[in-house]
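Board notes, transcribed. Complex of a protein with NDP.
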Amino acid sequence: MQRISNYINGALQSPIKSLYLDNYNPATGAVYSLIPDSDEADVDLAYTHASEAYKTWRLTSLEERFMVLNRIAELIDKNNDELALAESIDQGKPLWLAKNEMTRSAQNFRFFATAAMQFASESHNMEGQAINYTLRQPIGVVGCISPWNLPLYLFTWKIAPALAAGNCVVAKPSEITPMTAFLLSRICMEAGLPAGVLNIVHGLGPKVGSALVSHPKIKAISFTGGTSTGKHIASVAAPMFKKLSLELGGKNPNIIFADCDFEKALKTTVQTSFLNQGEICLCGSRIFIERPIYEKFKAALLLEVSKLQVGNPLLKESRIGAIVSKMHFEKVLSYIELAKQEGGSILTGGTSLKIEDHENGWFIAPTIIENLAYDCRCNTEEIFGPVVSIMPFDSADEVLEMANSTDYGLACTIWTQDISKAHNMAANIQSGIVWINCWLLRDLRTPFGGVKQSGVGREGGWEAMRFFTEPKNVCIKL
Ligand code: NDP
């Protein structure tokens, strides 16, 4: 069985204690590879090499960094098929979707390589007295921790700006989906990334992730994952005065006004609800539909969803793949049971599925629930699976109150042809990201992140470059 390795000091290495964890294929439920069960000692070793490499990496020219990050991007593109296959097997997502995500992972490197070339700092002139300028310097060795839903995409979304800004990195991908991060280590070696600049330590969150967060010399943590893990990380890192970026959970509203472009809203709602089995932090799990079109939209949505094929992620006709892990599969099913107890009616789905030749895989039918109160647990807690709830509303004020009623505030989608209504909703919705008449349309220059319990700080564009640098003001008396 394949054993993957840590990537430390530019080489593939076994964990110090030679312990390994099982890695499952969610479409079959079977163990198909072994991953390092690393611990504090491996993190410390990675830190030692990263801090050594930092002495030269921080001084490399922008152009040199630009070139090597671009080479990584080219190699991700060149190996798109191999990476996408690995991602699909490891995560359960359809292969066609994994291919798109690999392309987007290459774009992360390309985008931040270019961003570093353009990044500039301010100068403040005190007329006749002094001139100030801001030096933006790399932080040193930073820690990046990423989740299992878009494994390589979110891993590279952190690593690329950190490296582009001149930091060295110790990174931990989710133990549930380690494979593409492992393949990335090989790509970094082939691209000629200097040894120690990027180190990837595989293993469990409470061991490897914790060791990164509590490491006295790792000065910043960029984390994407669940809100409760984020809270714990903040409680450890804040008293150590670490810089923290937290991208956490969501319970996003998808608000459909009667004056929307019906067909576009319908088609996109199928995506916002079920793309990647609903395991995207930006998916819209609470669908609010204005009453005059409620019944018509509901019937059309049910028809569209009945056409979605759930199945073997490697088949091109599969629109929905497997749920990432047995634990998560059980969690999603438990929320469907809770929905029934909370008075919800299951309009479609609501059960696990047995797929031919994949009987032990973790598949759940796309599920639409009606009649749930907007403030019940199923409508306020993150389920993070192919489960949505639909609710009617009568006015913009009412839907704003319902949409804003959760502890989360990551993203929302609004469908209307009325431009004033769209602006008013955008201004009053409690959310870090607002999509109007679209969803998941991403410009990497825009600030990305959430409010309330969806996170602290922003990623993307200059926000990421600012996070991964320390500003230093230099004041020169004239
Ligand atoms: P988790 O919070 O369980 O894990 C995220 C990462 O943190 C994993 O690498 C995990 O390792 C690690 N981790 C777990 N415990 C600790 C710890 N004590 N200290 C340090 N690291 C730890 O999230 P999931 O992987 O379950 O991901 C799903 C969540 O991510 C959802 O809530 C989703 O909304 C959120 N998310 C947010 C996004 C955003 O941009 N706001 C984007 C994508 C997802 P291990 O896997 O080994 O446990």
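The pocket of NDP is lined by residues 145-149, 154, 172, 174-176, 204-206, 209-210, 213, 224-226, 229, 232-233, 247-250, 281, 382, 384, 410, 450, 454-455 (CB under 6 Å). The chain has a mean pLDDT of 98.
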